[in-house]
Amino acid sequence: MKKIIYQNSLSIVFLSLFILVFAGQIYFGIQEYNKELVDNGFHTVDFVEYLSTGHFIEATFENWESEFLQMGLFVWFTIFLRQKGSSESKGCDGKEEVDREPNPKKKNAPWPVKKGGIWLMLYQNSLTISLLLLFVISFVLHFYGSLKDENTMNILEGKPPLSALNYLTNSRLWFESFQNWQSEFLSVFAIIILSVFLRQKGSSQSKPVDAPHDETGE
């Protein structure tokens, strides 16, 4: 058991942090949402009811959407874009191990590699495809939640609800998206550039401490 925990400790810790912070979001989100309801003369909602509100759905997937977009584009762009000296980039000269063609005869190679054809094509691009698919799903749910919350507020204020088509051009939807996207792209830019000049001993995301600034790759 100790070996399993050690070998998976990075994912376990981040999953645990996610659950903890997600619980905090829900706890304080209910309080915030109920304040809005009370201020408009409506009854409050409980935990189960809150999970189906546009307030919760929008707040959750608005953030997930930007994360998956950032990671998907980062994985894809690192195929052919470079940053000299960054630990987050491939080298500027020649091909690297990740560029080589997969060998179906390699011991313990994943089954799509051995199968070849369409399965290999999908598998060798599966990380980017999965991340961008998660982005699309999250964006759709963000849109749904944001529209639902907007119409809930409209009802509370005695205004007519908006249709999905009309909401596509609503400034609120795109403000919610762009305010998250810009922060994700800034954070990627920061790690790319800072890893050129700064180090963290022992981290797989850093170059060795004694590596020169112009050395590219981890």
Question: Can you offer a commentary on this structure?
Answer:
It is a single chain. By secondary structure, the chain is an all-alpha fold. It is 65% helix and 0% strand. The chain contains nine helices and no strands. It has helices spanning 2-7, 9-39, 47-50, 54-80, 111-115, 117-123, 126-156, 164-167, 171-197. Helix 4 (54-80) runs antiparallel to helix 7 (126-156). The relative contact order is 0.13.
Give a brief outline of the structure.
The chain is mainly α. It is built from 9 helices and no strands.
End-to-end CA span: 30 Å
Poorly predicted ranges: none
The outline comes out as elongated
**Mean pLDDT over the full residue set:** 93
Structural class: mainly alpha
Largest sheet: none
Radius of gyration: 23 Å
What is the assembly state of the chains in this entry?
A: single chain
Number of strands: 0
The amount of beta strand, in percent, is under 5%
What is the helix/strand order?
HHHHHHHHH
Number of helices: 9
Helix fraction?
Answer: 55-70%
